[in-house]
Request: fold
Amino acid sequence: MTIYNFSAGPATLPKPVLEQAQNELRNYQGSGMSVLEMSHRSPEFDKIIKDAEKTLRELMDIPDNYKVMFLQGGASLQFTMVPLNLAQGKKAYYLVGGSWGKKAYTEALKLAKTIPFEPILLASSEDTVYDHIPTFDPATIDPEAAYVHLTTNNTIEGTAIYELPDTNGVPIVADMSSNILAARYNVEDFALIYAGAQKNIGPAGVTVVIVREDFLNDQPMLSSMLDYRIQAEAGSLYNTPPAYNIYISKLVFDWVKNEIGGVDKMAAIEREKSALLYDFIEQSDFYTSPVKFAKDRSVCNIPFVTPSKDLDAQFVKEADALGFKNIKGHRSVGGMRASLYNAFPRQGVLDLLEFMKKFEEEHK
Amino acid sequence: MTIYNFSAGPATLPKPVLEQAQNELRNYQGSGMSVLEMSHRSPEFDKIIKDAEKTLRELMDIPDNYKVMFLQGGASLQFTMVPLNLAQGKKAYYLVGGSWGKKAYTEALKLAKTIPFEPILLASSEDTVYDHIPTFDPATIDPEAAYVHLTTNNTIEGTAIYELPDTNGVPIVADMSSNILAARYNVEDFALIYAGAQKNIGPAGVTVVIVREDFLNDQPMLSSMLDYRIQAEAGSLYNTPPAYNIYISKLVFDWVKNEIGGVDKMAAIEREKSALLYDFIEQSDFYTSPVKFAKDRSVCNIPFVTPSKDLDAQFVKEADALGFKNIKGHRSVGGMRASLYNAFPRQGVLDLLEFMKKFEEEHK
Reply:
């Protein structure tokens, strides 16, 4: 049975990446060592991490005045590191369009009990279970604020920001965890971008942080590990990095560049792939999308529901038995969620649509 | 050519572990998925992380009133998390027997500029380049202090603490990164043990933390990710864990248990293996150990020098060409360092001794 992994993350990796990883697991390019056991100071790993950065810079067109870091702790640790490094003594605005944006704001409030800065909720769509990207009046933003934080893709709710909002000149910090490399963004529009790897980059355990140099802190932070300047100046080698996770990420970057042809092509593939599902849901009287506006639709995470919770549960059960794994929606939204990240195969969407049609026929 | 990887970390992994990892890389136990792409909420990964914890508990004989966590950020992030969670409003003593212990103390000083607690240098052997484990008078320790921090094995300098010092009743916190599972310690003698995986556990990117429940913080910390109670109560799944790194660690725990027969047997193997090298160095007039006292010798990291720096450099160069990789000593100690962690093969020591004899003949 073919397995399609619809997991919201950790998520499907490209088949050629897994093949290469398997082939060289015990002996990386004739070194006689696995990358799993290789010194992070070895020439072999030095090349891996530098190539990873180089290819990511090419893919995202990252300007030279931005630093690229491969850190640990996931986006969740960035919820602390971002305000700690960027916001001290200032205001920091949070645009909350989903559960993870809310977590970022909540962590900022927690940090603000110890570190002097002022987290401000700019706008939120929590009242309607984040069924749309909230809007706001730019004039309400203090132009002296440190940043406006936003989430470019809401993994749980299936919404995304493709056109950045007017922030009254205040720099934007983005959690891009669930659509980095799946949509084209202009890095220069951001002061800082961060992304946990486990959706479109690689395995869980490494987090990409891209920061404009002039936003690096001048004062030491309370912990070297949480200090962007220390991490950036050490080239992500302040301490032992998650080397294997970086290696797999490098293979994924190579795949996007060489097999796909770059981010614009990847983004086009993602749009076409997700449109197959969105178009089907739209013409159906049985399935509906909880996302309010078509313009807010994520190409990566597509939630949908049947007419009842019982049918949702039955759908998930039958789908699972047929090899459509991890398609159950997050408990806050319910129903189903098809996460169609970059490496998710188009055939998997076609097969899902066949099953959805059959299920609709049987239960409408 | 056979490659022997003497790296101080990331370090050699057991061959059967790498074989199993390679075999199931693309399809974990018939799931149709790689562990690299598997949801951390899946039944498959739930079993992996629970089995990892279970086997580690067996190996180290961890009592039920201790929590076991698999975190990110390496020992370096623990340098912050330990005082943040355990020391607020109290004194915390640091026994500094090596470069990493000094880093732990330095990070504590950094944190103390923001968080109210008092880091105190209990004793240090820095003056003699950490060539021995420093001693102290227990009566100088305030019995109300939060903890005495020590490093059980000094990776760079090749010393270790096998008999815990009298700390005047104050709980001991240990960085066990470089000899966990290579020597027997009684977990009940510690309030908290932490260890980066990349020496005796698995690949870099996961850190084991073992903490007695009554040392968990009552008050929320400034960041959820840095909050032991939150991490412990979430069973290391507060956010997406470094799943693959935990999976490889589980395979290593299984290897120590099933192939070796437990920590006592592993420790005996480590003692015998390292004694081969120590005995040879001792009888030699050419090689010397920078470690002052035999009782302080690490079984995991064995530094040694020839009569001159030029010969040291030549040794490293010739050794490398013969497949003895990463044997160069840390710049602070110089010379050579053979890291003989658990997975390092005994034959590699015998082959190294042959080369050392030959090199001595040629240059004495």
